[in-house]
Amino acid sequence: MTTICKKATTLLAAVSLAISSMAAQGLAPVYEFNVDASRQGAPIQPTMYGIFFEDINFGADGGLYAELVKNRSFEFHNPLSGWTPFGNVTILAKDPCFDKNPRYARLACSGQITGTGLENEGFRGIGVKEGERYSLSLHARSTGNSPVTLRIELVNHANDIFETKKLEINGKSWKKYTVALAPQQTEAKSRLRITMETEGVIEADHISLFPQKTFNNRPNGMRADLAQALKDLHPGVFRFPGGCIVEGTTIETRYQWKNTIGPVENRPVNINRWNYTFPYKKFPDYYQSCGLGFFEYFLLSEDLGAEPLPVLNCGLSCQFENDDMTQHTPLGKMQPFVDDALDLIEFANGPATSAWGSIRAAMGHPEPFHLKYLAIGNEQWGPIYPERLELFVKAIRARYPDIQIVGSSGPGSEGEDFDYLWPEMKRLGVDLVDEHFYRSPEWFLRGAGRYDSYDRNGPKVFAGEYACHAPNRENSFLTALCEAAFMTGFERNADVVRLCTYAPLFSHADAWQWRPDLIWFDNLSLVKTPNYYVQQLYARHAGTNVLPLQMNGAPVAGQDDLYATAALDKETNELIIKIANVSIRHKTVKLHINGLSPGKHSGKLLLLHSPNLEARNTFAAPHSVTPAESPFEAAAPLTHITLKPLSFSVYRIALQPAQEHLSVYSHKVGAFELILLAESQGQGNKSILIGATPEMLRECAPDGTFPNAVNAFLVKTPDRNILIDAGLGKKLFDNLHAVNLTPGQIDIILITHMHGDHIGGLLRDGKVMFPQAELYLPQPEYDYWMSDGKFKQQQDVIAAYKSRLHLFKPGEPGREGAPLLPGFTAYAACGHTPGHTAFLLESGDEKMFVWGDVAHAMALQMPYPQVAVTYDVNPDDAIAARKQVLEYVSRHKIPIAGMHIAFPSMGTVSRRQAGGYLFTPFPGAD
To answer: How would residue 27 be classed by pLDDT, with cut points 50, 70 and 90?
Structure first.
C-alpha cells in the first residue's frame, strides 16, 4: 500500500459535461459497435478477477478474523491494552502456558471492596447478536487447593449486564476452560467482564471470545458475513497477507509466515505496520494476533474457490520508511528468506510425510493446497530489489519449476522506478509483474488503453493493487464508474493481464486509516460499496474468451465517453458485452453481431447506474447503488441499445435461439462433456411436501410453490455417448437433435431409478427408442419394480430391453463405490425408491455427481434435507440418504447435477451457516 499522498484532480463530471455539451450542439449521434462472436480470442483466466487482503483498517483482528477479544494473550507492548483491570491484577511471565506468548494475568481476590477482575473492550466494542451463541475460552490455573469461581458477563453500552455464566477454575496446572454465552439482546459495543466470585489466586492466558457460527463453521474461523461477501464476489485469486505489512517498518516487524502457523495460542503477536504510519489516524492498539495466519489464509482460499497467492518478504523492509540499508538484509545473509519461500511451497504442496507438509497435516489438512503462485516482495524499487529477487527465482525454479513467480514494478504506475523494474523483471524471467496504481478519475479514464500496446511476449501483468482516488477519497459511484471503464482494458487485453485485485479490501467504520475501500463494516453489519458491485459484475460475468469489439475500427476505450469489451462464455454459450457510459447523456448504440444466428436471442441486462456521481452506499442506506437485472432481447445480426447516462451495463446474450438455450446446457468434466437435456421447467406445489413447517415455507416457498424441473443428462466421453435417465420423453429427442445426435447413436443408458419421469423416453407405443443402447439398472430397482404386477410401465421397459439389460449393485458414499464403466462409479444416493442410484463421473482431476431426485423441492429440501416428498417410498430412508449424500458432496467439494433442479441443473453444494445445505448454480444460471 503506497503511503504517498496522491495529487487531487478534477472530477469526472466536469470532463463528461464538456464533451457531452459539444455533442449536444448537433443531432445525437448513433454509435456503431461491431462484435465478432465467431472470432474466439485470448482466454480469460479463471483467476482474472480476485481479491487482495491486507490487515489495514482493522481488517483482520476486529474484522475478518472472528475473534472478539483484543490483546487476548496480553502480548501488546502495553500488556493491558484493551483491558481494564480492577482489584489485584498483575501481569507475569514466569512458568508460562505458552513459550512464544509468555505473558499472563494473575488475579488475586481476598475480599476487597472493588472485587478482582478484567474487562475487555473488544475492537471498538464487542458485537454480539441475540439468538447467536459465543464460546468463551481461556487457559488458567489456580495457585491454591480450592476451586475458584469466575463470573463471565457481557455488559452493554449502558453498563447493564445482559448475559452471565459461571466457570470454575481448579488445579495448579494450566488447563483450557470453555463456556458458551447466549446473549438475549443484540449489542454492537458490549464489553466482556470476568470477575472472581471466590477468594483465591488464579492465572489466566489467551482469553478468547468467538462466535460459534463462523464462515463454513471452521474453528478459529472467519466472521461469517464478511467472508460470505468475499465469496459472493466469485474471486478467482486471493492475494495475502498484505503489501506493506509484509515488508514491515523494520526487518524485525516484517510479516513472517512461520510465526502464523501451529497452535493459535502460541503464535507470537506482531505490531501492525499501520499502527503508527498515519499521524492523523494513529492506532496504538493495532497489533496482529496472527490467529488469521497462513494456514487460515489457505483454508479461506479453498472455501472461496480462489487460487491462493501469498506474498513473502524479499529481505527488504518498507523503503518508504528506510532510505538507507540499516533495515535491509545484506545479500550475503539472504538464505533464511529464500528458505522461507521454499519451505512455504512445501507447507502448501508437500506430502503429509514431508517436513512442512506434516505440519499442515497436523493442523488438519493432509491434502495439499495446490499452490500455483508466489509473490516475492511488494512495492520495492531500485537495484537492491532485483538483486535479491534473483536469488529467489533461481532457487524456486530449481526446486519447483511449476510455481509462477510474481515480481514487482514498484509503487507507481509509471516513472523512473517503473521503467527500470520492468526490464529487470523480464531479465529475471518472472511470470507476472505486480503493478499498483491509486490514481485520479482522470487517470483511470485515460488509461483504459494502457495495456493495448504492452509486450505480448514478456511477463504477464498482475494488477495487484488499484483503486480510483477522487479528491475526497470516498467510495462514490464516480470512482466505481471510472474503475468499470478502466477494467474494460483488463479484459480486452486478457492475453497480457492475467490477474487483478482491488485494494484495500476491508475497513472498520470506527477504526479506519485509508480509504477508499471495497467493503466497510462495523461490529454487526457491512456495506458493499459501488466499487464492490463493479468487481462482482466483472468476476461473475467474465466469460471464457475475449471477442473483438470495435468502433470505427478501433477498441472502444474512451471515444465519446464510451468504454466497452466483449467476451464469449463457452460454459453457458453466451455473448457478454460490458459497456461504461461516463457521459451525462443517453447514448444510442447499433450493435452489429457477427456469428450469431439470425433472429431473436434472449438475454439479460445487469445495470449499475446513478444520476449522482457522489452517490454512496452507507450503513443507513446500503443499497443506494446496486446492480439491477432485467430481461433483454437482442436481434441478430443487428440490434439497437440505449445506454443510460453515467452507467455500467453488462449484457448477456444467448448465442443460440432462446428455446435451445433453455433446453440444453453443457459442462466439461475433464475429457467428458456433461449435457443437460431439459424437458420441463415449472413450479411444484407444497402439497407434495412431508414435514415442511410454516417457518420453512415462509423462508423458502412463501407463495407455496418452488422451482421444479424434469431433466435427463447426456455424457459424451471420448468413445461413447451415455444417457443418464430418459426423462418424460416429450422433448428428449428434440434435445438430442440439438446436440447433433440421434437415438441410435446412444451407446449406454444408466437409470437412476424407475419413476415414470426418468424412463418415459425409453419406449414409445411399445417401441424401443434406443435400438443400440445397453441399459444399466440397479439390482434393488429391478427387484422392487418386478415384485408387484401393478408396475406395468416399469415392467414393460425391463421386458423391452431384456436382451441388453445389465444389473448392478450400487455402493455407498464415503465407502467403496461400484465401478460401472471407465470414469463412472455407482452409489446408493437417495431413498426415493429402494434402488435409487447416483453416478460419480471422474475424468482427470474433475468430478461430477449426477443425482436422480436429489430434491423435488430444491428450494426447500436443500436447506432442509429433513423434508420428504409424497413420492418417497420410505420417507425416513430418503431423508437419511439425502443427508448422507449432501454431506459427502459438500465435504469433498464435488459438483452435482440433478434431474429435478431448475436450469441449468448443475452447481455446487455447501453447508449453510443456518444448517442444511446451499446449492449454487454454475455461472450463467443465476
So the answer is: low
